[in-house]
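Dear Dr. H.,

I hope your travels went smoothly. While you were away I took the liberty of generating a structure for the chain from your last submission, since the lab meeting agenda had it listed for discussion. I wanted you to have the full record in hand beforehand rather than looking at slides cold. The sequence, exactly as received, is reproduced here:
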Amino acid sequence: MRRLLLCSAVLLSGAAMPALAQESPAEATANESDGDIVVTGSRIRSPNLESVSPVTTVAAEEFAVRGTVRTEDLVNQLPQVFAAQGAANSNEATGTAQVDLRGLSPSRTLVLINGRRLPYGSPKNIPSDINQVPTPLIQSVEVLTGGASAVYGSDAIAGVVNFKLMDNFSGVRFTGSIGGYQHTNDRDELRDLLDRNNAAVPGAYLKPDKNVWNGFTTEVSAVFGGNIDEGRGNVTGYATYRKVNAILQKDYDYSACALGATGPGGSQFSCSGSATNDPANFTNAGRIPGLPTSFRATRDGQFVPGSLTYNFAPYNYYQRPDERYTLGANAHYEVNENFTPYLEVGFMEDRSIAQIAPGTNSAGITVGAGSISGINCDNPFLSAQQASFLCTSRGLSTGSIYDAQGNYVGPQSVATGVLVARRNVEGGNRQDDIQHQSYRIVLGARGDIGGPFKYDVYGIYSKVNYRSRFSGDANRQRTANAFNAVRNSAGQIVCAINADANPNNNDPRCSPLNYFSGAASQDAVDYVAEVKSITGDTNLVNIVAAVDGNLGDWGITSPFANNGVAVAFGYEYRKNSVDYQPDEIYQAAASPELPISGSVAVKELFGELIVPIVEDKPFFQSLSFEGAYRYSDYDSGFKTDTYKLGLNWSPVRDFRFRGSYQRAVRAPNVIELFSSQQLFEVELTENANGSYDPCSGANPIATFAQCARTGVTAGQYGNIVDNPAGQFNSLIGGNPDLDPETAKTLSLGAVFEPRFVPGLSISVDYFDIKVENLVGSVNPNLSIANCLANGDPYFCSLIQRSPESGSLWQGENGYFRRFNVNTGSLQTKGVDLVVDYRMNLNDLGINAGRLNFNLVGTYLDSYKTVPLPNSPEADVYECKGLYAGLCGRPRPEWRHKFMTTWSPADRFSLTGTWRYVSSVKIAQTSSQPALTGSFSEVNRELGSRSYFDLAAAFEVRKDLTFRAGVNNLFDKDPPLTTTAAIEDGGNGNTYPQFYDAAGRYFFLSASVGF
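The corresponding predicted structure, in token form, is as follows:
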């Protein structure tokens, strides 16, 4: 049906539209009218408006030059942007694509289309999903630095990303593109490592082929439009289809196993993995005398001391498969100068599969609050050696108790407190089938009111439907039923619930589960299997009424200026709603996920002012003041105000200095306010001895006195099992008492456009953004470090160890508390540099066409966190040039993108791009008290990376263009680490949303118009 709609739209457009594809001359924005332009960061329309805030613009041509299929891929390469949720996330994936300006988190970046809001990305994860943006219609992308809440309202803390779309297309244009990745696996040390591990565990550490091709992508699109009534109106429509194939980590020698550290000080990579294995690993959490703390089963039915890890990496996606359809149209018609109605409608359907390795299944016969443990010593699947190892040699009987009628009563002995960690390989990979459907309608009108004033009134209704179907997990109670295998009076192996005298607990589907040797039976696997789903939606209702005008028409002009005072003012109403409904299986899970239903609404008044103070005077080519104010009244009870103050000064035409100071606000969103408590993965940084939990292992890196502060008992010390995957539990949840965040933004810059060098433009801008009253949670790395170091009661109270085992990952009753609170502050400072130079070589006497150079770079001067409002100086930490631990994702000091385009002829161009990321060191290398600590030497530094891209375009004729190119031309590998946390975008031993992780990307596209 969807393909039929797509084809129908294209065919209808071809029948209805003119034969020549062209774009109307207006290029500034969809709101351009009578020569006036609107820049991102203001609602004032003016023929000569210049932004007081730094704005970086990405033209539509760059999407084509890079073969961009996913908008996120291009936006993430801007040095102002840090990677967020995207196609390279699989574990804990949301299925959305987000933008994170300045690394302040996606929730603090406002995303707009034509200056108007996008809705929440999904009811599961709030930041806007740029999958909703129709790529073929993008005219440009403007990235504004610094707070813009006074103009746009909440969320514009770090800045704004505004996608400007065409609304003036005439004709029909079809575009098709294909692409894919190629990589040469030539890391001999890693290939040898895989060989050594595969020799020990055959089939678990397979070496990838030397040459791999994967991740193929296809996109087709149609843009169609036509002018109405001699250009008084236009209708522009679009339809797109995109398909992206999966990439598995097994295809790369640097991601085919989960890397760990070994050797002196952790100086060498090893293949690590998960402590939940097949065959199963066991932990003596009940401290049965003489029984080893850790032991494992073998495939031939033996118990031996120690444990083995499971290599989960090969099954995880490095790139999620994705299939997307979009369909929509923009229209406007000038009835008269007082009334121009306009319409934007858009539909998007996206389906993506997130896949990780087969599920972890904790087994046992006793289900408690947050745990499952214990093995009945009469379990018939225990071999004679296993029964002796576990029970009889420990003084436990393997006998059974039956009543007079032969009904099973129970075992004579239970190996109490033994934890079973079995990888559910028979149940297949865990998959989350994520679907989003979004609808967006904008209906508005603009025109002249009278005098100098113009109006723009519009309403937005957006809805995002969310569906998730998760498979591959095992049901806790059914696992306990099946694991409790016994012999009935006839000597058959059955589930205990079907052998006892109680008919009410019988379950004819129950099939005994053998986790003591080889594969479990298919009947048992099917019985414990669990498929669960979530449905939900999020809605945005947004009504804006704005009036702007130039008061110079009324004579309100500075005596030293030619242009009048410009103003804008208006009213805005906005309501975001979320309805999130996990099914009964989710709600009854060991770590339940509960429904969320709520909304946040706000009424706002806003105003803007631009005052030209001096113009066309010596040393004052122009001097203007810019101000804005917004008052917000939220239905949750709080009121806020935001403002902007700015100056533009051009002493001569070649120079312009600009500066602004802004106060921005972000109100807590629905998820932050109302989400239920649930367990979520968190990763600790690897210590020098290879451990993650400093209180784990036979010889913990932390002393008993230190570990006791975290809740470790004397009996547990030296017996706590570490998680070699570095993944631990955290208990997260919302907080309805959150207050809004506030941010203060300072921006100072200069723009240099010298007349003596035609075509050259240089801008340098300093930014300082400080967010206070930060909505977030306390990082577990900080909690455990402070608790160990000084026993701070607050931080120690955030650590809940399992009463039985002392673990922070085995079962659900050991975790870090990470509820949403208003924490301390986060401040980032730096400098943006943009250089653009365009030259005609013919002017130099070289008959070789044109050269264009464009450099966009960012220097990070500071990224400082104050964890709590009352944090002492010792707890404050600076993350410039660091990564991991408290610093999270990489924070390089310098990043840039340098493009050079040579056009030797009008119909041919060649573009080379150099993308650079400076090196970062692991946070623990810092001498700062809050950061310094133990680390593995292999994680000391993520080296700098230079990526080179090459693309060519050939215009056969005006309406037929071919493009081809390769990104990451030299197949540069990503930097590797054992401690790339999932919540920081880590996947496959690196940060694949930040570094190129899949090899070279080849693409080919063609565009034809009529």
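Two observations you may find useful: The longest strand covers residues 429-450. DSSP finds 13 helices and 57 strands in the chain.

With kind regards,
E. W.
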